[in-house]
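Hi support team,

I submitted a single chain yesterday and got back a structure, but I'm not sure I'm reading the token output correctly. Could someone confirm the output below corresponds to the sequence I sent? I've pasted both exactly as they appear in my results page.

Thanks,
R.
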Amino acid sequence: MGFGLFAISLIFFFTPNLDIIDVLPDFIGAILVIRGLNKLSDLTPGLSDTKHAFYHVLYIGLAKFVLMFFVPYFNRNDAGYILIFTFTFAVLEMIFLLPAYRKLLDSILYLGDRTENSAVFKGRSEFFSFTSIFFIARSLLAVIPELSYIMSDEASGIVSSYNPRNIANYKNVLILFNFIIVGILGLIWLILGIRYFNGIRNDRIFIRDVTEHYEEIMQNRKGILIYRRLHFAFVLIIVGAIFLFDLISEKLDLLPDFAGGALFVIAGYLMLRHVKTKYLTLSAAVYTLLSAGYWGWSLYFAENYQNVNLFSNIRANDMFIGISSLHALSCVALGVFLYLFYKALNDVIDEHTGSSFEELSSVRARLNEENSIMKHQNTTALVLGLVSCAVSAARVFLLYELSVFWMADVVVRIIWLYVFIDLIDSVSYSMEYKYL
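Hi R., thanks for writing in. Yes, this is the structure output for that exact sequence:
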């Protein structure tokens, strides 16, 4: 019923934050909680509200994950941005993440009252109290080291002698203090959380009662499960497509494509139960690995050969050719994924859109026409997607010879994203009409 996913999700939240760097991304933990709530959210309004609360956590985590790759850029230009973002995300976590977890625990407690079972009470008080302690410390202690920027000579513009009371001199100590304290608190919180959720999951009577209650509610609503799974997969696909947009600074893409590829992998897995294309997830995984290799290699190149003349440095030129070739290969893998997704989406349009009951002939004709339009739009999106892949590969090859070519890449990618998102929205709306 999802309690195992709740336990696993804790792993992505228990680590300390170093400014906006999160080693285990929070958005993955949010995805696991949302997936765990897929069935439970139908049992009580509180759990349904909790699911929406964790969607906010997901969006915040994604924004934080993206900005994490900008840290080297901020450090080279103005480290004050890191303080601003660290403080902002600390506040957002206090506003959204902490209440979301408290709401989750309160809703589970209510579910235990409804089923008259004691499993949800064992260890709940300790975990509930420690959740507040941990998240407050996690947010607060991530901000304190960055406050040293305000007192630094760089920020004040004053060059002064060493002042032992200036916290700017102790930033590394404060970072270490953050890791030790939050690390210990996080480990205790993780142990308490895993023990609590596993205790619920292992209580067979409670799980049986909840399962029977769920099956009774969902007996005539099976279509809604299909809609939710596919709709969530489409949300991940759209977010992943946005990650494909190239945000170039100093010839490095600050919006890593492999993050989008990782979301494609998850979405492909969710869709496998309802589409015929079995290689969708595999193609997304191949693209993710290739794009991750390209991004890591291009980061190394940017750090070591940023101002090198390619035409006079053979080593730099050979490395750039290798990087460009790897990127072109990743574009081919992305093209394969887009083609397989095109086929999968046609299957969704055929099987999961329209109406779930016999309509009037005029309505049926209109629905068939809408399906035909969506398939044509799907073909257009595929063609634009493949063109975008080709232009992206060309942009990297022409990075030094015709750097202005990035404008063509941006234009084509924007057009494709607009058509693609509109297509997904149309298919989702048609699925909603059928199942809801």
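A quick pointer for reading it: Residues 158-162 have pLDDT under 50 and may be disordered. Let us know if anything else looks off.

Best,
Support desk
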